Amino acid sequence: MRIIQSILASKWTKVVVFPLCLVPLGILVWRGLHNDLTLDPVNFVEHTTGDWVLRFLVMTLAITPLRKILRLPQLIRYRRMLGLYAFFYVCLHFTAWLWLDRYFAWGQILEDISKRPYITVGFTGFVLLIPLAITSTAGWIRRLGGKRWQLLHRLVYVSAVLGVVHYYWLVKSDVRKPLEYAFLVGALLLFRIGSWIIGRRRAAAATKTSPKAGVSAETI
Ligand code: HEM
Q1: Angle at 191 between CA 90 and CA 156, to 5 degrees
Q2: Whose CA is nearest to atom 34 of ligand 1?
């Protein structure tokens, strides 16, 4: 366990993880340059980038439960990077749709966003991630204050749920993959709610035994 802790705490691990997260994009570019994006390249790009948005969202949400269950506080160092990568891939996903799928035909784009439920839901999930990406810096945590910042950043759960609904609605027949993501996001959400309830109970018990103690120790 000590070894894992020091690997996670090392600045070199971050230096390695950062470019690793760009590998899916690198593979996509490589396949594009070699005319290897299947018979329907636009769909392939949309699906690959969409998949990576959800994977990065799930990894971001998994950091806190894993940190607590495995007692690896150092994992927190990777949460911001993974969250920003989720945002990076959703920007690519959205741009692919705007550019390669809809050729920047704004009338049609607005109609799709307002009338096609799976696009409306995906778009909302994307918009919700924008304030989170902007306020992900230490400066914004200070400006907003820890509590307000935490509250705002819970929107990441809403975005992940919307991403899953978007995926579920767009698949035509085989719903296994969206259901797998639904299970993962649901489990992570339940863990969050469970630890919030336990935190509140502990704080209430502490207030009863010593009224000056109290105050929840719960963090995200
Ligand atoms: C949090 C935001 C989003 C997430 C998590 C997400 C995720 C996904 C996923 C997982 C897929 C399917 C990948 C696969 O089949 O393997 C997908 C496909 C797609 N997404 Fe998104 N997406 C998001 C936002 C958006 C937005 C903003 C748009 C455009 C407005 C969009 C348009 C599409 C389109 C057009 C497809 C392919 C549909 C098809 O023809 O089969 N998505 N997305």
Answers
A1: 25
A2: 46
